[in-house]
Amino acid sequence: MQVIITMILVVGITLSLYLRRRQNMWRSAEDHSPLAKAITQLVGTAGGIYISLELLLDFLGVPSRIWDPPSLYFIKPLAVFSLAIAILQPWGRKIWLDLRKRRRI
Where do transmembrane segments lie in this chain (predicted)? Predict the structure, then answer.
């Protein structure tokens, strides 16, 4: 039985690699829309903030039940907070630069 499963896996992997190579041969570079680029950047920034906050709270020894309650919400509150920070960050930067510009004048 193990021999049959191994043979099926080997044949499946071989066919998968063959098909992927063949598909990639005809593939051209895709142009991404500005919206897709913006969403990708937003999710990447929010993900970085989320990981940083989670590591910081874990390092400080804050109990996880405070910032990550078990199944109380549909989504994690820390993830929503990270997304909110990522959304507000461009406006915060603009305000910061405007304040610095006014101080110089």
Answer: 6-22, 34-53, 73-92
Q: What is the pTM of this model?
A: 0.62
Distance (Å, whole) CA 46 – CA 79: 8
Tell me the torsion sign for CA atoms 42, 43, 47, 48.
negative
Would you say residue 22 lies in a domain? Answer: no
d(CA 19, CA 104): 62
Which residue range is the domain that position 58 belongs to? 30-104
pLDDT digits (tens, 9 = 90+) for 39-58: 888 889 999 999 999 999 98
Taking the C-alpha atoms of residue 97 and residue 103, their distance in angstroms, rounded to an integer, is: 10
Q: DSSP for 54-86, please give it.
A: HHHHHHHT--HHHHS-TTSSSS-HHHHHHHHHH
Both structure tokens of 59: 């390092």
